[in-house]
C-alpha cells in the first residue's frame, strides 16, 4: 500500500488527465468521478514500482482507459440511457462555444481515432509513445492520426493544426 504523501502527489499530477480521459470515453460527470476514484484506489492498493514519471503516467492512462471500457461494457449501461445524457449535461456550462464545437467533433470520432487524437493533442504524446500505451504498431498510430485530422477537418471545416 502506498503512503499518503505518494497518493496525494499522484492525485495532484494526474487528476486532470484522468478526468479528461473519462469525459472523452464516458461523456458523463458522475461516471467520470466514479472511475476517478476507482483508478486511485487501484493505485493505492498497487505495489507496482515505476521506472520513471512517464511509466507512471502511462500506467494511469492505461488503467483509466480500461476502467472506462469496463464500465461501458456493463449490461445496464448498454441497455439504459442516463438522465444526464438525455439532458446533455455532460459538458460544463462555462465552456466556450468554439471549444465545445471542437470537443463535440473529437467525441464524435470513432473510438480508435478518438484515443490517438486525445493522447497526441491533449497529453502531447508522440506516435511511438502512443503505440506503447495502446499496444498498436507505430505506423498504425500515424495512420489513425492522419485520418482523424482529415475527419476533423471535414467536420469543422478549414485547417486543423498540428
What does this protein look like?
This protein is mostly helical. It is 73% helix and 0% strand. It contains nine helices and no strands. Helix 8 packs across helix 9. The longest helix is centred in the first third of the chain and has 23 residues. It starts with a helix and ends in a 6-residue tail after the last helix. The mean pLDDT is 84.
Could you give a quick summary of the protein structure above?
By secondary structure, the protein is mostly helical. It contains nine helices and no strands.
Tag the structure with descriptive keywords.
mainly alpha
Question: Largest sheet at a glance?
Answer: none
What's the count of strands? 0
Quaternary state reads: single chain
Instruction: Report the portion of residues in β strands.
Output: under 5%
Calculate the mean pLDDT score and round it. 84
- Quickly count the helices: 9
Question: What is the percent of helical residues?
Answer: over 70%
- Structural class assignment: mainly alpha
Tell me, briefly, the overall form.
globular
Contiguous low-pLDDT stretches (5 residues minimum) are none
Element pattern in H and E: HHHHHHHHH
- The rounded Rg comes to 17 Å
Measured distance between first and last alpha carbons: 41 Å
